[in-house]
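Shipment paperwork, digital attachment
Item: protein structure file
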Amino acid sequence: RVQLVESGGGSVQAGGSLRLSCVANEYTYGFSTYCVAWFRQEPGKAREGVAALDKEGRETYADSVKGRFTISKDNAKKTLYLQMNNLVPEDTAMYYCAADYWRCGLVSDGVDYWGQGTQVTVSS
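Attachment content:
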């Protein structure tokens, strides 16, 4: 079982930066053995995959954030990060971290573990 707790959201102006963190309390396998990802969701819209890391550390990004967002993790600290630079108003959403032992990538269907979310608001 994995429990995920996000932090780092907030309100920024367009062009600004934020770094989201997600701490995992992991009870079954080592944190390094999980696929992890960040998703976001606006009210009334479907959840969207933003960035993902597979078990080999390969990164995947949504086209809308490539070159601006960077996903990383510290296995020793059991922490996942999302560095977000050059933010635009369209990045405004609730951001969720997620983990799954088998499912990797930007598809949210069937992913086992989710955090409670942290709000990011970007003003123009």
